[in-house]
Amino acid sequence: MTRISVSLLFFLMILLGGCAATRPFPTEYKPGEYIGEQGGWPGMTVRVTIREGRIQEVRILRSDGTPSYTEEIGAVLPGRVVRANSPEVDGVSGATLSGDAFLAAVRDALEKAR
Predict the structure, then answer these.
(1) Model's pTM, two decimal places?
(2) 1.10.3720.10, 3.90.550.10, 3.40.50.360, 3.90.1010.20: which CATH number matches 27-112?
(3) Which of 1, 82, 97, 112 could cross-link with 34 by S-S, CB 3.0 to 4.6 Å?
C-alpha cells in the first residue's frame, strides 16, 4: 500500500471508531411520565410522556430563564422532540441557553425511560 492509502485508512479507522463510541438515544422507551431537570442557569424542569415506546408529549413545568425565551422554545422544541422521538434536534436561534437547558432536561427524563 502506498503511504497515502495507509494514512487514509488510519484516518477512517479513527473517525469511525469515534462514531462508535457515542451513545445514541434509543428509538423506544418504557411507557410512563418522566420528569427531567437541568440545574444551573437557566434551570428547567420538563415532563416527558411516553406511550407505545415513543415520545408523545414534552411539557415545560418550570423554567428559571427569561420568559420570552421560554415561550419561544416551548412553541418549537417540544414538537421537534416528539417528531424525532429524540432530544437530538436543532435548537432555536436567539434562545440558545434556554434551548440547551430544555434539551438537557429532556435527556435527563429519557434516561429514566430506558
Answers:
(1) 0.77
(2) 3.90.1010.20
(3) 112
